[in-house]
Input
Amino acid sequence: MSAAQTEQALGATGLRVPAVVLGTSGIGRRLDLPAATALLRAAAAAGWRTWDTSNEYGDAEAFIGSALAGLASLDGAAGTADGVGTAGEVQVFTKVDPVPGSKDFSGARVRASVAESLERLGLDRLPLVHFHDPERMAFADAVAPDGPVRALLELREAGVIEHLGVAGGPIGLLRQYVRTGEFEAVVTHNRLTLLDRSAQTLLDDCADHGVGVLNAAPFGGGALADDDGPVRSYHYRDVDAAQRDAVLRIREIARAAGVPVGALALRAGNRDPRVAGTIVGVSSTTQLTQVAAWAAVDVPDDVWPELDAALPDPAHWTGELGR
Output
């Protein structure tokens, strides 16, 4: 993928994001520092300069901080001539989380989570911080005067974070947060894919409130990344018969069009003008190269009606309340 990715406005935040955003969960949980540094440097060189991470993604934030420091050392130096870019060209979005293994998602914990992220990333402020997986607590508790949302709002008011988002699963719950009018961005996962359109109502609300949307997990955990082979799971669970049949039909459509299934899956969410970008997690340079190749594929327009027809019935989607 070249550095010339077209960027879109992320709602009313003033931030701009490329069509493909680098997800770092696998980097933080599967790699060591040398491997992570090499991969992040390769991503920057290939034009992946918006990175999505989280306080709880293993060592991801620390690895990113190290990579940013390395890129900063190239600022104004001859090393920038190799296309790697500089730390100033990379924007990092992160998320607040409880301590791993803890259920503490209090306001105090949110402030500590942000402080940890700043230290690990080596940044003075954070451009975008998401309230991560809010399904871990009741909405009323989250928006209470001493709760995590109030703490995030105060951090935004103080300029520690610039913009506030929410990233999670259940569509109905994310819609509640959007309707507060306090959130500027949303990350939805596994719900705007070739197999599931549960996020449509959320996208409607986001458009009404000027909230930017990032779509994540376009491959559904792998079911929509393979051109052949067994179809076992989608969105962390075993597929049902309707989902399996849909994947097989999608593969037939892809073969007939001469397009990889992964390219179709990657493009599916971004077809919606309400989606600013798609987060794709990679944990190797091989995966980075593969996704870059998929992103460069020219998908014929006449493929999309066929894919729409292959979509399973909504009864097989995650739905408004699904995890």
